[in-house]
């Protein structure tokens, strides 16, 4: 299991675990992270699983594909290190990753 820490806009920290191969979105939904609504279920079609990675983690993850980059143009307050959590797959190397969650996706 891989530990993932979601940090909500309020500063509340939600610690969760997921299996290698799970998407960060799946872990967030299972942990009840309210700001990750994941309306499209992980199809990279809505942007409601937007999150912000630390610059260090962002640089260590595989680069986003063009469809994710395109969808990120439509999220609220995109950052240079924004990702769609449905497109980030857990690996053992991600143990303890901290992910900022926006206050709202809509």
Automatic annotation (TrEMBL):
<dbReference type="GO" id="GO:0051537">
    <property type="term" value="F:2 iron, 2 sulfur cluster binding"/>
</dbReference>
<dbReference type="GO" id="GO:0046872">
    <property type="term" value="F:metal ion binding"/>
</dbReference>
<keyword id="KW-0001">2Fe-2S</keyword>
<protein>
    <submittedName>
        <fullName>Ferredoxin VI</fullName>
    </submittedName>
</protein>
<feature type="domain" description="2Fe-2S ferredoxin-type">
    <location>
        <begin position="1"/>
        <end position="105"/>
    </location>
</feature>
<keyword id="KW-0408">Iron</keyword>
<dbReference type="GO" id="GO:0009055">
    <property type="term" value="F:electron transfer activity"/>
</dbReference>
<dbReference type="GO" id="GO:0140647">
    <property type="term" value="P:P450-containing electron transport chain"/>
</dbReference>
<keyword id="KW-0411">Iron-sulfur</keyword>
<dbReference type="InterPro" id="IPR001041">
    <property type="entry name" value="2Fe-2S_ferredoxin-type"/>
</dbReference>
<dbReference type="InterPro" id="IPR001055">
    <property type="entry name" value="Adrenodoxin-like"/>
</dbReference>
<dbReference type="InterPro" id="IPR036010">
    <property type="entry name" value="2Fe-2S_ferredoxin-like_sf"/>
</dbReference>
<comment type="similarity">
    <text>Belongs to the adrenodoxin/putidaredoxin family.</text>
</comment>
<dbReference type="Pfam" id="PF00111">
    <property type="entry name" value="Fer2"/>
</dbReference>
<dbReference type="InterPro" id="IPR012675">
    <property type="entry name" value="Beta-grasp_dom_sf"/>
</dbReference>
<keyword id="KW-0479">Metal-binding</keyword>
């Amino acid at each position: 299991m891989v530990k993932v820490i979601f940090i909500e806009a309020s500063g509340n920290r939600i610690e969760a675990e997921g299996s290698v191969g799970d998407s960060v979105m799946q872990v967030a939904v299972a942990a009840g992270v309210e700001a990750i609504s994941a309306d499209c279920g992980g199809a990279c079609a809505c942007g409601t699983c937007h999150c912000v990675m630390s610059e260090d983690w962002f640089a260590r993850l595989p680069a986003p594909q063009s469809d994710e980059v395109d969808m990120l143009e439509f999220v609220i307050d995109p950052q240079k290190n924004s990702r769609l959590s449905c497109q980030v797959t857990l690996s053992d190397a991600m143990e303890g990753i901290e992910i900022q969650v926006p206050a709202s996706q809509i």
